[in-house]
Amino acid sequence: TNPVSAGSVTVTLPLQLSFVSSNPAPSSVNGSVYTFDYQNLQAGENRLITITTLTPLIPNITIGDSLTAFAEVTPIATDFNQVNNRDTVGTIVLAGYDPNDKQVDRP
After folding, report:
1. Closest Cα to residue 41, out of 88, 12, 74?
2. ∠ CA 64-105-93, rounded to 5°
3. Rounded Cα gap, residues 17 and 23, in angstroms
4. Who contacts 2 (Cβ-Cβ below 8 Å, separation ≥6)?
5. What CA–CA distance (Å, rounded) separates 92 from 24?
């Protein structure tokens, strides 16, 4: 029930995705790892981080590819409920595809 004076949220995005923006902006970036610092988090308080990414076009990504992002809130040592400080979100790449669509380049 004690407030956390300072900590961070670390989000690891899949390498296939391109980071476009976030709200708030990350405090630091190292490759596909984005860190968001916070201060004075009260017991029971929720905060939202929104991240926008861009999925590459085929053939740089394949229909059916699995994409997984990870997030972790620190510090955990002083948290009463440490189980809810990590999360994983996964999805499979879907796209409309017509196998009968044949295109020819003519000289």
Report:
1. 74
2. 10
3. 17
4. 43, 78
5. 27
Q: How confident is the model at residue 1 (pLDDT cuts 50, 70, 90)?
A: low
Give the pair of three-digit tokens for residue 90.
Answer: 């996964």
Which tokens is 52 given? 């926008």
Q: List C-alpha distances in Å: 88 to 9, 11, 34.
A: 13, 10, 15
With tokens 């790449």, the residue in question is 93
- What is the rounded CA–CA span in Å between residue 65 and residue 77? 36
Tokens of 107: 């000289």
- The pTM (predicted TM-score) of the whole model is 0.82
* Unique residue bearing structure tokens 């929720």: 46
What are the structure tokens assigned to 77, written together?
A: 């040592």
Distance between CA atoms of 59 and 46, rounded to whole angstroms? 39
